[in-house]
Amino acid sequence: MNVPFLDLKAQYRQIESEVVPLVTEAMAEGAFIGGDHVTGFEKEFAEFCNTDYCIGVNSGTDALRFALMAAGIGPGDEVITVPNTFIATTEAISQVGATPAFVDIDPNTCNMDPEKVSAFLEQNCKFNQSTNQLINQSTNRQVRALIPVHLYGQPADMDAIQGVTQKYDLAVIEDACQAHGARYKDKAAGSMAAAGCFSFYPGKNLGAYGEGGAVVTQDEKMAAEIRMIRDHGQNKKYFHTMEGYNGRLDAIQAAVLRVKLKRLADWNRSRNDNAAYYNELLDVPGIEFAKVADHAESAYHLYVIMVDDRDALQKFLEDKGIATGLHYPLPLHLQKAYEHLGYKEGDFPVTERAAKLLLSLPMYPELTREQIKYVADSIREFVSKK
Length: 386
Ligand SMILES: Cc1ncc(COP(=O)(O)O)c(C=O)c1O
Hints:
Helix content: 25-40%
Distance between the termini: 24 Å
Bound molecules: pyridoxal-5'-phosphate
Oligomer: single chain
Radius of gyration: 21 Å
Structural class: alpha+beta
């Protein structure tokens, strides 16, 4: 049996008859930038996330970058995040001129550990009364913001994190790029902080047919600022309040996303059913899961297990026609790109352990029970031989 890691063709077959006329119509009408599909999608996605505003942008990376800019984060500032995320989270921080500072993850959920945030702020930082600034004493930078990443589709523990950050008046921006439709205590991922950032990269739970992203927020001023930043800093054509970016969501992508958004809740339910079946079949010694906390409803963008001898298991599965992924094999603090930050091996042991053991299994709504059973049986075969 062949089990691909992702099957976008199967999803396309379900929606082809609805998507194709919209795309051809947009081309026939020359409606490529802005227009009804973009504003329509923004309205519908804001409703889906239960926020007042949604601003469509060109990618999840743009969403993060623009949200940071609109929150006033810039050169000299430090932004706290986790080392177990895709590099886009920290690229956005660096590209607004700020510097990432890492805290370790929770071993159960693989998400930001609120206690590590608290320890970082209490042990490394000092509040300067005269300047009203929170300074990281080891770097001398001002700590201004924090980005929890809702990794694998599961929201981070936002109440605990915001309980800590509120004391210090830090801006919190959610990286919800893997968590479309996930919930935390009845709140939608992306709706709980100053801004929530989404990616519509094709493989995401809500994926475009090209690049795309969005910021959702309750803050009117922030929404207006991001709308300006995404469009060369202009409110009115050729009148520029500031330098911005070419960072708009295009109309064809918005049309595709509108078709898919109607099905997202059902697709996420299928992902959860698939995860439950994996959980049942893989509940054997030698296999750990990235657990979903009681407060969370995961969108199951990824289904991740942890096993010793991970690389051998990946090869074993590949030989059986099963494709898997690694999210992520080398933590950000150990990447060459971040050598200049001065971190070393051993700084974030939970992340480093996870990076060695984790394996992402095939996960998508169209996955069949036979495929899941075949994957699980193959893993059990591997684990039992050891
Ligand atoms: C956690 C996380 N943050 C940010 C991004 C960036 O999104 P994009 O690829 O749309 O720029 C991604 C996408 O892969 C992601 O998984």
